[in-house]
Design a protein that fits this description.
The complex is a heterodimer. Chain A contains five helices and ten strands, in the order ββαβββααββαββαβ. Chain A is of the alpha+beta class. Chain A folds into two domains: about 70 residues, Roll (Ubiquitin-like (UB roll)); about 110 residues, no CATH class. A five-stranded mixed beta sheet of chain A has the order 2-1-5-3-4, covered by helices on one side. Chain A is globular and about 50 Å long. In chain B, α1 packs antiparallel against α2 and α17 packs parallel to α19. Classes of the chains: A alpha+beta, B alpha/beta. The interface between A and B is large, with 46 and 38 residues.
């Protein structure tokens, strides 16, 4: 199957999501909530691209290529929207990177720098809850104020992490009885410093 | 209640409903109905006995607003904050209830455990705004000053617990018929009392008439309304009647059966006349023309497809529906047409989905059929399709689907069976939102009747086509009106939408091709099949065929449920059908399409109602809420209202909707409290445009519409708010109430003030303590000297 990416033809299998095909072809597609070998649901919208055919913005992590697709990955509009999604996430993130125990692996930090995102642009007007760290088990710790609600830990644990409430008040929580059901590997999945191993 | 009792009762519920993960919502609903909340012992039992685990339970139970983990009071007061109620001051009503019940801080339950109070998105009685529901009983309109009265009335009714069963009064041949609308909203405005009065009067006078609860007339502004049909076929209409007028009306039309009764009545009547002058004021003596003028202008210009038979059809009389041509379309479809012919007919009628997007219905049906026959993309996963009727009407300010389900359940069922035949399945589901208990009851009854009559079940009309329908009750989430979220909730998950494609028509409920149609769409199908596509296509405009049902509410004289041909202008609807703006004010804008729609300014109201025309103006047809806004409505406040609604109803899955809408609300909060900076307007616009582009689902993509359309047409007002001016006085923190020199010291305001902000000082000019004032506006209405004015802070 052939698709067009930034006005150039690209041969794709059609069996893998767009982000995989694009990355393999050398395009730099940022993302936070996507993990290639784990269950995921489109959430962060950082991997957004534009389909020129219907002029729709689509998350490339949840879209399969189709015949005749014309993808734009680098226009000003795409870049601006990606930056805004980072800025929105930062406005609800306890961004004290200096003292963050997950800063080495934090992709949000990396992308903010790379995209020159301003973390004060949209707030935080509602104070992000201060440093609360929850011991999960073994060396695994959870700091809710860092969480960007991508849901990777929720979708990839069996009766472990779960969502609570909805909308802006939606949080990731771990019930006491479920702590035994998750292990330290979960920290690798977390794109920010919300889950870390001490 | 001890643990053992809870376990026993929970076990019974599990045995009745099942143990699978996807049954979590019905399970939790049943548990809550039993215990009034979700007790932890019952939940522990679920973990032990079913596939449901803690993660799923927390995820689901905290997502849906109907489910609660803490016990509520004995009675629940639901204050509607839908659009129509909002513009008529629902928040002050809520505050008034809290004051009356002495609720402080975050408490929502009274100390004696009698009442709990909550705000709800929309009760769907917009024409009676502001509306309050206590348990199953609806009250409206409720002004802040009437709160005690409403509570007293509720308590009185609790004691009487008047049973309103359809008691048979008729013995022998009835002399005629009295028809009254018994929808939820009609009952709220006093039809229940009139019904009781009619029954009482018939018994007392010995008059033999049948009292018939009928489908909604739509004239919510003129209720209680009764139609008297005499044996010789005359129908006389009495709008706005009072219970004590009933007797006289009945006597006027019907003669009591026995001579003795007649004599007695005549004498009693004479005495009544002498003692009171009630009889002379009776509506009977108002000339016909004057009496029904409001109703007649309201009904003129309407065209009935979905609401055919309004005001005379008994919602649950199957025989009558059949006698009026009901199920004729179904018979025609299954006995004389192939499924493909049915789809072609629907396709060529040009009908587009009434749920909001306006996708051609015929094409959707074709997609589902193609996928079910294995001609589609997912060849290897051939699964039987399923038909879902989307009755999750969540738009604040809209109640069309509720009325259609309550008044015309059989028509919706007929449309659904035809859809099932067309796409080739035997399974259908009604998805009805939790806030519409009456609709659920009626649909269940209607389904039972159809089953008994053989219109549902095996071998319908003797063919080999079989079809049955079950009911799934939503649990309170606006986003579940979005089809992929609706499916998620039926599968026992949070109502998270997912990216389309795959469309439900390809891969929906449990991977099956799923046809999801809105209630109104399905209610038009029978007409199309019975009368033919060409006949249907004659109605409406070239791009939008047929009729559209609207819920007309807000600041309009005659609100109600209307059905008009597509292409009718908004001005016609407001001025002619609605009888103009309330209180003689000027029309400012019409809000159409609810939280996904926009505000169309008065100067554009000559536009025709049409899917494409509305889109161009930055609104959408939506499901059909029409809220009229007058000069005294603040557009920034309206934008904030809808944004607050979508913010609370956002599912939280994608960044733009979860955080973006919240940031829009932050800016709107600053604007409506006078704390905004000039650059805030630009940032608001940037956010709104970005969310429209980049949110994941339809809810998120359309959520900025109220902001974008008001920015487009009323930017001036935003700029004024930055300067701290709200001309309409709607933004309470930007105005204060003050008493002018016109005051004569009559103390009326001091007596009515619920927050004791006005000192009782007879014959002296009164003063409002701005610290205590909650700006409920009661004093303004009470003052006879226009001495209380709103001023800029």
């Amino acid at each position: 199957m052939k698709i067009i990416v930034n006005n150039k033809e690209l041969e794709v299998s059609g069996q893998r999501v767009l982000i995989e095909e694009l990355r393999e072809a050398g395009y730099d597609i940022p993302s936070l909530c996507y993990a290639s070998d784990a269950r995921h649901e489109a959430s962060c919208m950082v991997c957004m691209v534009r389909n020129e055919v219907d002029n729709q913005m689509i998350p490339s992590c949840a879209t399969y290529p189709t015949e005749g697709m014309r993808i734009d990955t680098e226009s000003d509009e795409v870049t601006a929207l990606r930056r805004m999604s980072i800025e929105l996430l930062l406005s609800d993130h306890h961004a004290r990177c200096g003292v963050c125990e997950g800063k080495e692996k934090c992709r949000l930090r990396e992308l903010s720098v790379q995209m020159k995102a301003k973390w004060t642009r949209f707030g935080p007007l509602v104070p992000v809850e201060q440093k609360v760290q929850i011991h999960v088990q073994g060396g695994l710790w959870f700091e809710p104020a860092k969480c960007i609600r991508c849901g990777l830990c929720v979708y990839n644990s069996q009766d472990g992490f779960t969502f609570q409430n909805r909308g802006f008040n939606m949080q990731v929580v771990i019930p006491e009885d479920n702590k035994k059901n998750v292990d330290e590997k979960m920290a690798d999945l977390c794109p920010v410093g919300a889950l870390f191993v001490r | 209640m001890n643990e053992k009792v809870i376990y026993r009762k929970t076990d019974a519920i599990i045995d009745r409903i099942g143990t699978r993960r996807e049954q979590i919502i019905p399970l939790l609903q049943a548990i809550q109905q039993e215990f009034n909340y979700l007790p932890s012992d019952a939940l522990n039992r679920l973990y032990e006995r079913t596939e449901i685990d803690r993660a799923q339970l927390i995820s689901v139970a905290t997502f849906y607003s109907q489910l609660r983990m803490v016990p509520y009071g004995k009675h629940i007061i639901k204050v509607c904050i839908g659009t129509a109620c909002h513009v008529k001051g629902a928040n002050t009503v809520y505050d008034a209830f809290r004051r009356e019940l002495k609720l402080e801080g975050d408490n929502i339950t009274t100390a004696d455990g009698q009442y709990s109070i909550e705000r709800v998105a929309c009760l769907g009685c917009c024409a009676l705004a502001p509306v309050v529901q206590i348990d199953q009983k609806i009250f409206g309109p409720v002004s802040p000053g009437r709160v005690r009265e409403v509570l007293d009335e509720f308590e009185r009714m609790e004691e009487e617990s008047s049973a309103m069963s359809g008691e048979q009064l008729v013995m022998g041949e009835p002399q005629g018929e009295v028809r009254l609308g018994m929808e939820n909203c009609c009952q709220a405005s006093g039809t229940a009392e009139v019904y009781a009065a009619v029954r009482e009067a018939c018994k007392e006078l010995g008059i033999n008439v049948s009292i018939k609860p009928v489908s909604c007339v739509g004239t919510c502004n003129q209720v209680p309304l009764i139609d008297v049909a005499t044996a010789d076929g005359d129908i006389v209409r009495y709008p706005n009647i009072k219970p004590d007028e009933v007797k006289e009306i009945l006597l006027h039309h019907f003669r009591p059966s026995s001579r003795l009764r007649r004599l007695r009545n005549a004498i009693l009547n004479q005495i009544d006349t002498i003692h009171t002058d009630q009889t002379w004021n009776n509506i009977l003596y108002v000339p016909e023309k004057e009496r029904t003028q409001g109703v007649n202008t309201f009904l003129k210009g309407q065209f009935r497809i979905s609401t055919e038979g309004f005001g005379h059809l008994n919602p649950l009389d199957l025989e009558e529906y059949i006698a009026q041509g009901g199920f004729e379309a179904l018979r025609k479809a299954v006995t004389t047409m192939s499924p493909q012919q049915v789809i072609d007919e629907v396709l060529s009628s040009g009908i587009r989905g009434r749920g909001g997007g306006g996708f051609p219905t015929g094409r959707k049906w074709q997609m589902v059929r193609n996928n079910s026959e294995g001609r589609g993309e997912n060849l290897e996963e051939r699964k039987l399709p399923i038909v879902i009727c989307n009755g999750d009407e969540g738009d604040p300010g809209a109640f069309m689907d509720r009325i259609l389900l309550e008044s015309y359940p059989l028509r919706v069922i007929e449309g659904m069976v035809i859809a099932g035949y067309a796409v080739g399945t035997s399974e259908g589901v009604f998805y009805i939102r939790a806030e519409y208990p009456q609709a659920v009851i009626r649909i269940r009854k209607a389904l039972d009747m159809c089953r008994q009559k053989g219109l549902l079940g095996k071998n319908i009309f003797g063919t080999d086509f079989s079809f049955d329908i079950r009911v799934f009750e939503g649990a309170g989430a606006f986003v579940c009106g979005e089809e992929t979220a609706l499916i998620a909730s039926m599968e026992g998950r949070r109502g998270f939408p997912h990216l389309r494609p795959p469309y439900p028509a390809q891969k929906g409920l449990n991977g099956r091709p799923t046809l999801i149609n809105n209630v109104e769409t399905l209610s038009q199908i029978a007409y199309i099949i019975r009368r033919g596509a060409d006949e249907y296509a004659k109605v409406g405009t070239s791009g939008s065929r047929g009729t559209k049902v609207f819920a007309l509410a807000g600041k309009v004289n005659h609100g109600g449920l209307i059905e008009v041909p597509m292409g009718t202008t908004l001005r016609q609807i407001v001025e002619e059908i609605g009888g103009g703006v309330e209180g003689g004010e000027k029309l400012k804008a019409v809000q159409i399409g609810g939280p996904s729609g926009g505000c169309i300014p008065a100067e554009l109201c000559d536009a025709e109602v049409d899917f494409d025309a509305l889109n161009q103006m930055g609104a959408i047809m939506g499901s059909g809420g029409l809220v009229v806004l007058s000069e005294s409505s603040c557009m920034v406040d309206v934008a904030r209202y809808f944004t607050a609604f979508t913010c609370a109803e956002s599912c939280g899955k994608c960044t733009f909707c979860r955080v973006g809408i919240r940031r829009m609300l932050d800016i709107l909060d600053r604007l409506t409290t006078g704390r905004a900076k000039p650059e805030d307007i630009d940032q608001l616009e940037e956010l709104a445009l970005s969310i429209k582009r980049a949110a994941l689902c339809g809810l998120g993509k359309t959520a900025p519409n109220p902001v974008l359309s008001t920015l487009r047409y009323f930017r001036q007002e935003y700029e004024e708010h930055v300067q701290g001016i709200c001309r309409t006085g709607s933004c309470k923190q930007m105005v204060k109430l003050e008493i002018t020199d016109n005051c004569v010291g009559c103390t009326k305001c001091a007596r009515v003030c619920p927050s004791e902000a006005i000192a009782y000082t007879p014959y002296e000019r009164h003063v409002i303590d701005t610290e205590k004032c909650t700006q409920c506006g009661l004093c303004v209405g009470e003052c006879d000297y226009d001495a209380i004015v709103k001023l800029k802070v």
